[in-house]
Specification:
Layout: E1 4-8, E2 13-16, H1 60-89, E3 119-123, H2 160-255, H3 258-268, H4 275-317
Amino acid sequence: MAFVSQRETSDTYTFSSRPRVVENRSRYREAPPEQPHYGNIMYDRRVVRGNTYAQRILPTTTQAELAEMQRLQEQRRKAVARRRARDQVRVRTPEPLQGRQHTDVQTELYLEELSNTVMESDVQCQTDSFLDRPVTPLFVPAKSGVDAETQIQEGELFDFDREVQGLLEVLVGKVMEQSLLEVMEEEELASLRAQQRDFEEKRNAHLCEVQRLQEQERRHTEEKERRIAQQKEVLKREKEIAQKIAARAYTQQHLANLVPSIFKSLRCHGFFVDTVQTDVETNFLPWLMKEVHSTLDKKYAARSVLDDIINEVRLKRLPEGTKP
């Protein structure tokens, strides 16, 4: 196989690969390799071991793509760095004067036509196509041993009428025996069904009787428990009534002299107050005393005024020169 690629630009670039002999190559197309089947998943490389929720493991294909991208980025970064270093080291042409500009001029020995269209040409060769593998023929073992044969005439080894008599006797006997066995088995099954039916009837009757007795016993037990509960309730009620009567008698005996003394003490301390008496003592009596004092003061003032008038008249009526 040989491949040649040629690209024509400002600098001629040519690549060629010499033909090589293909070694250890099958004439037929091989089937794609099968994926290995792991019997134990602990030896499978796809099984993640350790903490599976704190780390994010990328698939193998993604990791390869990321590695390839990182390698390309590193190459691109190095190329940019080399270009910058080369531009810094290279001697540049002085800047053009005002109103002028630099023009690219070929200074090589041989001039080349400059064009925006790049001339390219591809060269290739065709290899032989793969042939399909023919179908593997079936394995046929080699023949071994010696063939032998013999000739038997009709009626030499087998007489049908004579040989079939025993077979018929056996067949008829077996059929009759099997028929008798089946009839006996059917009769026995019918007898067993009748016995089973009688047994089931007796068992059902016994079960009904047992259920009736159980229901009767349950009713008796419930009635007994109900009567016991009623009797306990009656005794409890009688006990409570006796306790209440005793407590009432004790309370009456104890409070016979206690109630009057308590009422007397409370009345003395002012807890039981007569509203009329309180109103008379707090409102009416002070007002009455005030009115009485006011009336008495008026009377005393009138009497004193009257005494003064009488005394003045008496003094005026006395003869002159007489002392009172």
